[in-house]
Design a protein that fits this description.
The chain is 40% helix and 16% strand. It is built from six helices and six strands, in the order E-H-E-H-H-E-H-E-H-E-E-H. Strands 1, 2, 3, 4, 5 and 6 form a six-stranded parallel β-sheet that branches. Helix 1 links the parallel strand 1 and strand 2. The model has no long low-confidence stretch (mean pLDDT 96).
């Protein structure tokens, strides 16, 4: 696959807050995509019920199936998430638990980039570590470099408009999207 032929990446947001720093990063991604790459947000993981095998036995909830289909149809996924208590948020883990049970598994063989933003210095590194563990189980191809851990994000996102304004961070995210596109190309070959 030629990168210039067009790639479509989906964005999975691991936060439910409207004023989330990570939501601001996720909203910026379509404008940061290099030519030939489209980035589309997935629905809210807040629409997923708590995972319960009894509920699954009655049938997968529609939001789970819709997201699984969107992930399967995409050329790659960008997961943007905060770090909660040294790990990923429970709502994101719940979404992964649901999506892991869909057959065929939508993340299997799928290129995935991870982005975290935090007011702290290390920018969500511990959440990325735990998220990578889950993605290994799902047989996703997680982009190793560049890693996007946006530390001191409150200084890089305008508090009024909730727009990612830091030029260096914007340029770095464009480089990560390009690296994900290169990974997607290698996976397809």
């Amino acid at each position: 696959m030629n990168i210039d032929s067009g790639l479509n990446f989906s964005v999975l947001l691991g936060s439910l807050r409207k004023s989330s720093l990570n939501a601001a990063v996720a909203r910026a991604l379509p404008d940061l995509a290099p030519p030939g790459i489209t980035i589309t947000p997935l629905g809210s993981i807040g629409e997923f019920p708590h995972y319960n095998a009894d509920v699954q036995d009655e049938g997968f909830p529609a939001p789970v199936l819709t997201m699984a289909q969107q992930i399967a149809a995409s050329d790659g996924v960008i997961i943007v998430t905060p770090e909660y208590n040294y790990s990923m948020p429970g709502v994101l883990k719940n979404a992964i638990d649901w999506l892991s049970r869909v057959s065929p598994q939508p993340f299997a063989g799928k290129p995935v980039a991870i982005e975290t933003a935090s007011p702290g210095l290390i920018g969500g590194a511990r959440a990325q570590y735990h998220l990578r563990q889950s993605l290994v189980f799902l047989d996703a191809f997680v982009l190793n470099k560049p890693e996007a851990m946006i530390g001191q994000a409150t200084q890089k996102i305008d508090p009024e408009s909730l727009q990612l304004t830091d030029v260096g961070t914007r340029e770095f995210l464009t480089r990560q999207i390009s690296a994900l596109a290169a990974l997607a190309k290698r996976v397809r070959e």
